[in-house]
Amino acid sequence: MIDRRSFLSVSAMGAGAMLVAPRMVLATVPTERRFVFIIQRGAADGLNIVVPYADPAYARLRGALAIDPAGATKLDGTFALHPSLAETARMYSERQALFVHAVASPYRDRSHFDGQNVLETGGRQPYQLKDGWLNRLVGMMPKAKDEAIALAATVPMALRGAAQVTSYAPSSLPTPSDDLLLRVGQLYAADPQLHPLWSAALEAKGLAEGAAAKQDPASLGKLTASFLVKPNGPRIAMIETGGWDTHSGQQGRLAAQLKALDTLLGSLRDNLGPAWSQTAVLIATEFGRTAAANGTGGTDHGTGSVAMLVGGAIRGGRIMADWPGLGASALYEGRDLKPTASMDSLIAGLAGETFGIDPAHVSHTLFGVTDAMPGLAMT
Prior knowledge:
3-stranded antiparallel β-sheet, 11 helices, 13 strands, disordered N terminus, DUF1501 domain-containing protein, DUF1501, TAT_signal
């Protein structure tokens, strides 16, 4: 069973569980395709995840934080993958991983909260929209019995909106007897408001039966997969991860975060089984970090970053980047990786191709424009 308070203690569980405060949210739509959105809260450092080792300015700007390409996985003549991402590198070699670099949402300031709000709502500026793009995407699908289930005490912004979301957070109280559940059901049977809510709660409880209790990355991946493979289970999942804000001690912290993420992705792949071939996973952050290292062994809030797409439904084995370079004149505001790709366009293209919906229509519904990045997923 899922215990959010246990999730919140993950940060104290060692290097194998460094995805601070992960939470999972699931949405039910009638399709055999799976779409998983993993948000990296805290502004993950794209320059040290997919490393532009051949850019002549990279090593100079990063100094001691620069990733040695000799220990990383060379992706092509320009980029290498952080050495902690071993499973992701294997997916890349099997054409199941795609990286989109120098990408950003429309947000151009440096507040985590505002940046996450823009990333999750799909607005042009913070708090412009009151619902999330993932909820609007659910609303574009044929109606399912239950549109969405949030296995957490609260629902993240990306899944808030008109599509109904049921929140389910198991308590530590003793499990009620079947007789009690039956009696409560009979009590609510004629109530037009309470009966649907009670039915939705029972449905969520049924989906959670047998779910793993462990909170390490491998167990989180297995738990997520266990829901996604159920015949009547959800087909959309969102996993929230924290701990990516590396102002100091970045070298070890980022390595541990990426190792945990890599373990999560590997576990998700292994436990999805044949459904992996129908799955697209998007990993994205609210903004990137400064091109140069700071004076405390870390990096500060920046702009452009990298998005990772993995899964059997991804047209992988490639890097998509209109690389702006890291020279002084090429940096955004003289300090950040300049964005040359749109996160909104990426999301629209990936979601549209994954679910067989016109990407331009997805883009207009989710973001109010008709700009969708092509060629991301199998159609």
